[in-house]
Automatic annotation (TrEMBL):
Name listed for the protein in its UniProt record: YARHG domain-containing protein
Domain of life: Bacteria
Keywords associated with the record: Signal
Annotated signal peptide: 1-19
């Protein structure tokens, strides 16, 4: 039984991700009943310039937060890394 579960899991994990949306439209007619059509919409192509702009804005936001909060790494008694901030509220994303 475990082998069947393992095979089913591998089969599900080995399938590729679908890069489209399925849209189903149904209409009702008193002569034909319900008529449904299914269509597939491809994802829009990615814009490399927009991706670079988004990454640049994300980096600027991170740099602004780091300049405001000045996080420093410390280790607790268990050896777990903890961050200590220069200002209150930085652990919640405050950057001003």
């Amino acid at each position: 039984m475990k082998i069947l579960y393992a095979i089913a899991t591998l089969a599900l994990l080995s399938t590729s991700a679908q890069a489209w949306q399925i849209v189903e439209r149904c209409t009702h007619s008193k002569f034909y009943g319900n008529v449904c059509t299914t269509s597939y919409l491809d994802d829009p192509p990615r814009n490399a310039a927009q991706d670079q702009e988004n990454e640049k804005a994300r980096r600027a936001s991170i740099e602004k937060w780091e300049a405001f909060c000045k996080p420093q790494r410390t280790y607790d008694s268990e050896g777990v890394v903890r961050l200590v901030y220069a200002r209150k509220g930085c652990e919640f994303g405050r950057s001003e």
